[in-house]
Amino acid sequence: MFKRQNVKVMIVLVILAAMVWAISNGFQSTHETLQQEAQMVLAENQIPKAKNRSVKQPLAQPIIINQTTPTVAENISQESNEMTENIASVLSLRMERNQQHSQQQEMLENIIANDKISAEAKTEAERRLLTLAETSAMELQAETLLQTKGYQNIIVMIDFDNATVYTTDNLNDSDYAKIGDLVHKSTNFTLEQIVIIPK
Fold first, then answer.
1. pLDDT (tens place) for every residue of the chain, 199 residues total
2. Distance from the CA of 73 to the CA of which of 44, 50, 61, 113 falls in 20 to 30 A?
């Protein structure tokens, strides 16, 4: 009985030893296989990296724009805006002048048409209405003459004692003298009576 038990124990031990050996060898084989596969993967990944390092690719250069230096488009836009502002300023002054003339003309015509106004007052209103018409014609003549000489952004406003010239053009000393002479010829005002105001 004792011998049979010993034999059974021996068989179990042998089986256990065999299982341990099989498991050990299988794990080692599996471990070795994993190591080989990992080395192959690393080798495959390293080869193209080595090739990539050997070829120097040109680096893309960023486009740098100096913000303090205006571009051609910005210069054109700025000049266009200035030109538009200059034209608008001249047109605004001309409209204001024409509106004043229209109001004065309407007032004088109402005086002349009013039966309750004395004859002397009507006569004075007629004289002033004629002067207003002459003044408007003189302003238009002076502006037309100046425009033919290259001064486009300009307006002339004539009062009793002087002629005032508003302009948004860039003027130098010779321009002031030339404008004064042209206005003198078209209005008969002396140079002392001509005022040029650049805006």
1. 544 555 555 555 555 555 555 555 554 444 555 456 556 645 555 544 444 445 555 544 444 444 455 555 555 555 556 657 767 778 888 899 999 999 999 999 999 999 999 999 999 999 999 999 999 999 999 999 999 999 988 999 998 889 999 998 888 889 999 999 999 999 989 999 999 998 7
2. 61
Distance CA(47)–CA(43), nearest Å, equals: 6
Can you tell me the distance from the alpha carbon of 48 to that of 50, in angstroms, rounded to the nearest whole number? 5
Output 153-157 pairs: Cβ under 8 A, ≥24 positions apart.
Answer: 153/86, 153/87, 153/89, 153/90, 154/90, 154/179, 155/90, 155/93, 155/94, 155/97, 156/183, 156/187, 157/93, 157/97
Nearest C-alpha neighbor of 165 from the set 173, 175, 154, 176 = 154
What amino acid is encoded at 198 in this protein? P
Full-model pTM: 0.56
User: Domain spans of the chain?
Assistant: 75-198
What tokens were used for 177? Answer: 């003298």
